[in-house]
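thought: fold this chain, then report.
action: predict
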Amino acid sequence: MTFLQDLNETLQEKWAKANFAFEMPIQTQLIPQMLNGSDIVAESPTGTGKTLAYVLPLLQMVDPAKKQTQALVIVPSQELGMQIVEVFREWVSGTNISVAQLIGGANMQRQIENLKKKPTIVVGTPGRLQELVKAKKLKMHEIKTIVLDEGDQLLSREHRTTVKGLIDATVERQLVVASATITEEIELVAERMMINPVRIQVSSEDIPSKGEVIHSFVKTEPRDKTELLRRLSHVEGMRGLAFVNSLDQLLMKDSKLSYRDAPIVSLHSEMKKEERKKALDDFKKGNVNILIATDVAARGLDISGLTHVIHVDVPHSIEQYLHRSGRTGRAGKDGEVLTLLTYTDEKTYKKWTKELPSKPVQKIWHRGELIEGSSKTIDKKGK
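observation:
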């Protein structure tokens, strides 16, 4: 193990108990650089251990005896924030390090109370962090390390000004930007805020024992997508994360599927925090077989054991296609990326999938299951 010797005894013991099969490349590269104090731009595919790659060095670097907030992790969505806080809590148990969650959509007064206790590390969304800084409740000058998780989102035009304002409010700090995809533009924006940044790039080829992922599609009419989702939710062993491009489409599908009592839940920005938690819990416990979400709601969600990623709509960009697709076939398990393909989206789909190692497979719905073939195959077999 390369980086473990740099970590304290408590972290080494916890690593041993977690029983990981192997170190991930992003961890081997990022952890020593973070412990050196370098500014870093790190790119590694979804589901390759990025969160632990910055959580472990942060836990090593902070001093729990100091009653001040020393590290900040900024995230683009509430769900990702909640998930990262859970990871921190798992690793800080039995230590004096405290972690607070400062996300939008939650009670601000309670967050202010938590800040009075001087948590060692805080995890938050840009808007809420900005409000707390303006209210003089979060003291940015005490923060020594900032991590931007899903940095491509946080440095996009939507959040850039807010995030830059938060970074500029610090005095001397280490800045780490991590994401599955980092474009040249994002890299330039990040580098303007950094001192001699280290660039780390991990590709899917570098990941040990990645499961085999099949890319497939089933041709359908737009109006038939909801019914197809309902059928898929009854396929034995199905554990799928389905993506819809627009909130309106998601809400419409959700109401039709609820009416039909399909074992499907949705996740979207208009849900209350408790509703979101219940939907995620139901899916994680296997009470339902498919979770439908928009990209924003699913950003950073870490759900293990997904058999399928379902593109209900063809994504708007190749990055989006790869981001979504990277959630299955993790940690050596096989997976399938299924697209519900309408005639109008065929050209875009071909464009997004032409770089894949193998050609996407066409499937058809036949006698309660998806099988390889086209509609001609059905005619040959007889319905």
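thought: worth noting. The chain has two domains: 4-206, 213-381.
final: tokens above.
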